[in-house]
Design brief:
Layout lengths: L7 E7 L6 H9 L6 E8 L5 H11 L3 E6 L4 H11 L4 E4 L5 E2 L4 H9 L5 E7 L12 H10 L2 E3 L3 H10 L8 E4 H7 L11 H10 L5 E10 L16 H19 L2 H21 L9 H14 L10 H12 L2 H12 L3
Parallel strand pairs: 1-2, 1-4, 2-3, 6-9
Antiparallel strand pairs: 4-8, 5-9, 6-8, 7-9
Helix pairs in contact: 6-10, 9-10, 10-11, 10-13, 11-13
Length: 338
Amino acid sequence: MSGTEVLVSVIVPVCNGEAHLQATLDSVLAQRHRALELIVVDDGSTDATPALLADLAAADTRVRTLRQPNRGVSAARNRGLDAAHGEWILFLDADDLLIDPLLLTALVRAGGDDADIVGFASTDDPGAIGSVGGDGDRRLQAALAEAVDVVLDHREIATMIAAETANAVWDKAYRRTLIDAGGTRFLEGIRMGEDLLFNLDCISRAQVVRTVPIRGHFYRRGGTASATGRYLPDKFTDLTIVGTRLADWAQSTGSPELAAAVDFIRAKNVFSCVRDLHRPDCDVPREQRLERAREYRIEVPSVRMDGLGPGRRVLGSAYNLLGYRSLFRLTGLVGGRR
């Protein structure tokens, strides 16, 4: 099968996304690689999204629309995975864009017959939209010439976890056979950390992971689907579920570096959740906030240091020295409320 015939599935979950959805889907349909199926899963929208999708599906046979009651982004992505037929799978949020029309072509070509995952570059710079120009074929060949394989041993995966570079699914293409072989799906019922769990399941089984230096994705900060920047009462519960799974997985590998990286990221999550208790939209009384800080701190007693870089060792050591009251006061200085 030639590269132009390789089917690519792009999965877009959406709930009330009328503001940006048309531009998002247009950016996919504008790809030079024509062998694609655009699977849009409407997760219970109550705005004009269903009508927009009906019009688009009628106009372009590559668009497939699925509708379900509101169950969250993970359930919507899983529904898309169940329906996908492509050799390659990409995930795109309903307010983001594919900004290089050669992206899918580059990914299929770079993936060849052997890669399980192909990574590419993402940006949150609005100036990147519409900035791609020049000789497309020459640009494509240059990117393919610089594609490199990444060796993902335990030490490298630990670095990715600690650096939070494995947290996104929208800057990678996944071979569907890799996903199917592991029965990999997104953990439903949580809003934080599900992408990391999905990635680690795939990465830990991948034989060949390749990156191609093409800036193909625009991430819209503060978009409609964003769960960051505000107080979320269930955030700590979600992150505890994820953290427990990470810790169990790290322990199963027997890797001290992975165990330390998971400790570090869980401690960062504790810091983040305690800091959120100081957000203006958190209306929890002070004594209850202090009690929650205590509960959060108990969940992650300490950070192991194996394989952590100097900066992270400093942060880990500081965490190990701080009690919950000190942590609460310190995050109050950052969070803006005492």
